[in-house]
């Protein structure tokens, strides 16, 4: 598919060998932690609060003064991420409010210069994650609700008081982003991805992706580029992302339709809470089975899951969010072989099952084991044996006109059942 923005995409992009190697690592990793944390967290009303509550620019600019995360300990966070089984994190270096979570030299509206905390959170986080062997990617917002050069406003930001001028300076804004990305990719060692968001605010604009993507790949060839533009990928991107959705399902409008799903590594992102940024009155907390099903279904589509947490303004991660991550970690320690470094997508996952494959082993994850039988449609490989992953005991099966029918072992006192298929 040729997108309307293909003109500005990186021309004739040939990924470097470092980049291809990193794509392979990314595909194998299957699980990352997304972190939405910024000065918006202070208000406990999600990361869109500035726009949703029609803040004045000057009013919102009081927030950094209250950002003093007394309990923030990057080493603790990194340990939690490690224990969760995640292989990487994606951190909001700068969200739509335009606030930079590092010591940016091109914007004083940043964590070191504008908060009493004065510590470079990006630096601390990167270093702590590196210690634990967790790779780091940066979420970076293309859209900005604070800067004058971004004017006129796009689809969002119109209610923000002080954003009524139509006078912008697009070249200056693009240069600003390049300068910031250069900082992020120069001052913090190896960074394994840039995760863009906000294209949809000005879909007609010339985002100069040709220049921006080449700059990133020049500075750090292995750095993977993804862009949450909700479209088929543009040239120069290294992975495709699907927001709150499984590839090609597009149930939320933020995903991407089936014909826009390409061959690049895939990542779906979703939340443990109802929102991305900390929402103190959140009542949509997902339970363990829900997040686990999300991870397994994503793998069944051949995709990573980037699961979001929204740390509190004091630097703590809510207990239930920690619990979800730790429970995933425990599960992955036991069943990681059926998720990491597997392929998926050869049988479309359903609400009943998801299949992954590694060499001549296929794993069937059954979401509701308390039934007599399960029918897998469109199953082609020739089977030698099917067994229960937990105890290796063989289970019986039959090929029917409708597909592969497997009799489920009993009793199962667990939420999930995994079957191992030895195939030729
Ligand atoms: O507007 C953002 C939102 O705040 C959040 O960052 C998500 C994450 O995928 N992306 C945008 C919506 O598409």
UniProtKB/TrEMBL annotation:
Keywords: Glycosidase, Hydrolase, Signal. Alpha-L-fucosidase is responsible for hydrolyzing the alpha-1,6-linked fucose joined to the reducing-end N-acetylglucosamine of the carbohydrate moieties of glycoproteins. The record marks 269 as: May be important for catalysis. Its EC number is 3.2.1.51. It comes from Sphingobacterium olei. One of its GO terms (molecular function) is alpha-L-fucosidase activity. It holds the Pfam family Alpha_L_fucos. Residues 1-337 form the Glycoside hydrolase family 29 N-terminal domain. SUPFAM superfamilies: (Trans)glycosidases (SSF51445). One of its GO terms (cellular component) is lysosome. It comes from the Bacteria. This is alpha-L-fucosidase. GO terms for biological process: fucose metabolic process; glycoside catabolic process. Belongs to the glycosyl hydrolase 29 family. InterPro entries: FUC_metazoa-typ, GH, Glyco_hydro_29, Glyco_hydro_29_N. It is an enzyme of class 3 (hydrolase).
